[in-house]
Automatic annotation (TrEMBL):
Family named by the database record: Belongs to the glycosyl hydrolase 51 family.
Protein name according to UniProt: non-reducing end alpha-L-arabinofuranosidase
E.C. no: 3.2.1.55
SMART domains referenced in this protein's UniProt entry, alphabetically: Alpha-L-AF_C
InterPro entries: Alpha-L-AF_C (IPR010720), ASD1_cat (IPR055235), GH (IPR017853), Glyco_hydro_b (IPR013780), Glycosyl_Hydrolase_51 (IPR051563)
Leader sequence residues: 1-23
Domain Alpha-L-arabinofuranosidase C-terminal: 465-652
Entry annotated with the keyword Ubl conjugation: no
Record PANTHER family: ALPHA-L-ARABINOFURANOSIDASE 1
Record's catalysed reaction(s): Hydrolysis of terminal non-reducing alpha-L-arabinofuranoside residues in alpha-L-arabinosides
Chain coiled-coil ranges: none
Length: 661
């Protein structure tokens, strides 16, 4: 108990206004008056990819798996638990999948034949279950064609593993023709692993399609929208941009499986369901039930970016499938449709309502343009084939939309032959922004805080588009979002910020994962069917993103940048809007460090705020049981004249904020 009390006192005294007489301090100087460069509004953003059940089963709040019976196994996700009445296998009913060839986007529906009135059932398992909350309301919808009025009622219930009913409603199908029906009902208790049971009263045949279930309380209360708790975590980051839809999901294992944005817009029931390229990618976590319904499509991505105040950054296929898989290439003479997709997307986002694609956006409910400023060509392709295709895209896009910034790629790694070739060729082409990806050890991130110190200030600009420290190794299923990874990323981020003249965009990856359906670790946000939490890495990102400032200023020790000397990393900005100076400090040492920070060139207030992230052990993580084990604490600091005296705990990230007078 005594040790715990001492520990708490030490933590609360993290920021000291005076030093112990015997303590030796390090002096840092912050030149508040001189701006080195502007911090771009896009400096810190988020990168969304449909991996780890991040879309269907995650951000997209649909609770029914395989709602339109379009999976490769058409009844995957559905069960018929009560089909036998007699010992001789006489069935109370059957479910058969019918395919209508002329409807090529959603060709299948389910034909249910009820043999007698004993209660034939269909049960949907959801995405590793359905998370329902007591008294929360849920909206169910379906399409039905009731042959000759045979089925009198469709009873819809939440059930638990013991078949206990946890909420109920019903629909009366009234037409022989296809008609949409809706109903709403409340859950009677909270359950993470509920299922939806559909029972039929009557005898005869009924056809069903697009059986859908959403919580009523979605983000911005949009009907059939996004999961509120997850979007809130994104909104709280105040991201400068939203990159979507990936990632390797853009490329596809084959070109046929690439992400095609035009298939993801329009009426939801007319969007084509396709297999997700991550469903069998990793032997350690196969997910044969992982598909893309595209209920979360490009319109919804643009809308989400708008909602969270982020600039949209869509990434499109450049005619190259994943080079780690098939490396399939579209011939150069057949590249035009891919290029046209990019031009049409810009029109979809920005065109007036009188334009062909602008009118599509308007009909979907958004007459106002989405103000697209950037577009990505390819994900992490490499080699001469990529450069040849990039040239074609660049010429076409700039020819029609000269103000659109094009993001190009440097391959899957931050060094090596592929990277060196790509950077050399893209620089020759005067590429505007090059996307670099880094997945490596925590040590690599600490050692590479100076990576951009010697990059050419004339260009190209850099997008640190995917990065995350790997606690075990790249693609290892044992990677954890532990504290060492998080503060090591923070150390690296001080280097990104110090080089804001070169680095214009940054984003952690992957963004999120379902705790029971992930393929890749680590991930910034974890969720189950009921809850979501931010990792230690999330809180690092939030500290930097919400304190990005508008102007980079110098913070030095004896005239040199603070880049890891004595395991200390630092960057500093000022914010012209809030009239603040903000200092970010990372102590990667196992020992506390005493600092004296001298503010020069401008007067600052005599007190300020320090926000700190730290944890006792390098392996500590947040969890559903302890979601804020590693989360920010805030305290006040008082200055002596122009000097702030601060004590950094071992392995800590601190942000000092002071008003400028």
């Amino acid at each position: 108990m005594k040790n715990n009390i001492i520990s708490k006192i030490s933590f609360c005294g993290l920021l000291l206004t005076s030093f112990f007489a015997s303590a030796q301090s390090t002096t840092l100087e912050v030149d508040v008056a001189k701006t080195i460069t502007k911090i771009q509004p896009t400096m810190y953003g988020v990168f969304f990819e449909d991996i780890n059940f991040a879309a269907d089963g995650g951000l997209y709040a649909e609770m029914i798996k395989n709602r339109s019976f379009e999976f490769e196994v058409p009844l995957m996700g559905w069960d018929q638990p009560k089909t036998e009445k007699y010992a001789f296998n006489a069935k109370s009913g059957t479910a058969t999948i019918i395919k209508v060839v002329e409807n090529n986007k959603n060709p299948r529906f389910c034909r249910v034949i009820v043999n007698d009135d004993i209660g034939y059932e269909l049960v949907n398992e959801g995405f590793r279950g359905m998370g329902i909350k007591k008294d929360a309301r849920y909206n169910v919808s379906l399409k039905a064609a009731n042959h000759d009025g045979a089925i009198k009622k469709i009873i819809i219930q939440f059930i638990d593993k013991d078949n206990k009913v946890l909420g109920e409603t019903s629909i009366v199908p009234t037409s022989n023709d296809w008609v949409s029906y809706t109903a709403q009902f409340a859950a009677t208790q909270t359950e993470a692993k509920a299922k939806l049971k559909i029972t039929f009263e009557g005898t005869g045949t009924i056809d069903l399609d697009m059986i859908s279930l959403f919580p009523d309380d979605t983000w911005n209360h949009r009907k059939n929208g996004l999961r509120k708790d997850i979007v809130q975590l994104l909104y709280d980051l105040k991201p400068g941009f939203l990159r979507f839809p990936g990632g390797c999901i853009v490329e596809g294992r084959t070109l046929a499986q690439r992400y095609q944005w035009k298939k993801s817009i329009g009426d939801v029931d007319k969007r084509e369901t396709v297999i997700n390229r991550w469903n069998t990618e990793f032997v350690h976590k196969p997910a044969p039930d992982y598909f893309q319904s595209f209920g979360l499509g490009f319109f919804e991505y643009f809308q989400l970016a708008e909602d969270i105040g982020a600039t949209p950054l869509p990434i499109l296929s450049c005619g190259m499938a994943c080079q780690f898989n098939t490396a399939e290439l579209v011939p150069m003479e057949e590249l035009d449709p891919y290029v046209q997709d990019a031009l049409d997307l810009i029109e979809f986002a920005n065109g007036g309502v009188e334009t062909p694609w602008g009118s599509v956006r308007s009909e979907m409910g958004h007459p106002k343009p989405f103000n697209l400023k950037m577009i990505g060509v390819g994900n992490e392709q490499w080699g001469p084939d990529y450069i040849a295709r990039y040239k074609v895209f660049e010429k076409a896009i700039k020819g029609k939309y000269p103000n659109i910034t094009i993001v190009s790629g440097s391959g899957p790694a931050p060094e090596g032959d592929f990277f060196d070739y790509g950077m050399k060729e893209l620089k020759k082409l005067n590429a505007e922004v090059v996307d670099e990806h880094y997945y490596s050890s925590p040590k690599w991130f600490r050692e590479n805080a100076t990576r951009y110190d010697n990059y050419d200030r004339k260009g190209p600009k850099i997008f640190a588009g995917e990065y995350a420290a790997q606690s075990v190794g790249i693609t290892s299923p044992d990677n954890k979002n532990n504290w060492e990874c998080a503060f090591s990323e923070a150390a690296f981020m001080t280097g990104l910020e110090r080089n804001a003249e070169v680095v214009n965009l940054t984003s952690y990856a992957p963004l999120m994962a379902h705790v029971e359906a992930w393929q890749w670790t680590p991930d910034m946000i974890w969720f189950n069917n009921l809850e979501a939490y931010g990792t230690a890495n999330y809180y690092v990102q939030k500290l930097f993103s919400t304190n990005k400032g508008t102007d980079l200023v110098a913070i030095t020790k004896e005239g040199k940048p603070v880049t890891g000397q004595n395991d200390l990393f630092a960057s500093a900005v000022k914010d012209a809007n809030t009239k603040e100076v903000i200092v970010k400090l990372v102590n990667a040492s196992a020992n506390a460090q005493e600092l004296n920070i001298d503010f020069k060139g401008s007067k600052v207030a005599d007190k300020g705020t320090v926000t700190t992230l730290t944890s006792a052990n390098l392996d500590d993580v947040n969890s559903f049981e302890s979601p804020k084990k590693i989360s920010p604490t805030e305290s006040e600091i008082k200055l002596k004249g122009k000097n702030a005296q601060i004590r950094l705990l071992p392995h800590s990230v601190s942000v000092l904020t002071l008003k400028m007078r």
